[in-house]
Amino acid sequence: MPQTGRTLEDTCGSQSTSCSGISIEYAAFRQLNYAAYVDYAHVRTGNQETAMRCADITFDKLWTIWQTALRESPAARGWELLREQVEDLSTCSSGHDWTAHCLLQADNADAILLHRRLGLSVTEAAGLMGLPDYAVRGLLRTSDRMLGALPPCLAPLVAELVGS
């Protein structure tokens, strides 16, 4: 798992009292999801350093709303923040080797990236995105239908995206 060298104390500040009571949950969530966030961001941006920066910024922002995220869904909120970070830094320019986000809606493209490109199970992808398993299965099926409806001239671009 990639390490940034940042500790929870770096995030909260050594004298902070706002970390008490939630630091274990936050630290566990960060540790559990950091590598997958970086992997996702790396595919989207094409750059490992940028990917790590996206993950770090995401977790910094998540920390500032952690109490709210705990009342809702930390996974869904974290995923939303990560996607925002990555979207600002990724493009659909010529030469970019990941086309799903250029062709599909964000949730569909994310499900394909996590499941088919990164090899996560449907359950793992769903957990990371803060969605139920059935929703990710639906996103994958819908994506296959949308990609299958594209003109044949785009087949080389979408070959790795389509499920078997």
UniProtKB/TrEMBL annotation:
Taxonomic superkingdom: Bacteria
Protein name stated in the entry: RNA polymerase sigma factor 70 region 4 type 2 domain-containing protein
Source organism of this protein record: Streptomyces enissocaesilis
Lineage: Bacteria, Bacillati, Actinomycetota, Actinomycetes, Kitasatosporales
